[in-house]
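Continuing the batch. This is chain 6 of the set; chains 1 through 5 are on the previous pages. Same settings as before, nothing changed between runs. Recording input and output for traceability.
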Amino acid sequence: MPSGPKPDFGVYLLRKAPAQPEWEIRWVRWPDFWLPTDRDDAAAALREAWCRAETERVEVACGGGRGRTGTALAWPAWRYWTG
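Output for chain 6:
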């Protein structure tokens, strides 16, 4: 865990369920180098994270922090530009 304030909410993009931290989480089953196993659930989790980030500290993470996390963080921009 990096130093600094803890999140209020986290979205974890992982193949296996994460350990339960002290804050509220949503687990999105998302295997390495693949797509989310349930795209509707993934979209709902990312929408929730986006909405909650207006007033809460939100964390989005995967095991490596490059592929899945980058894809998830690009999703709101793509939605914005494509309507």
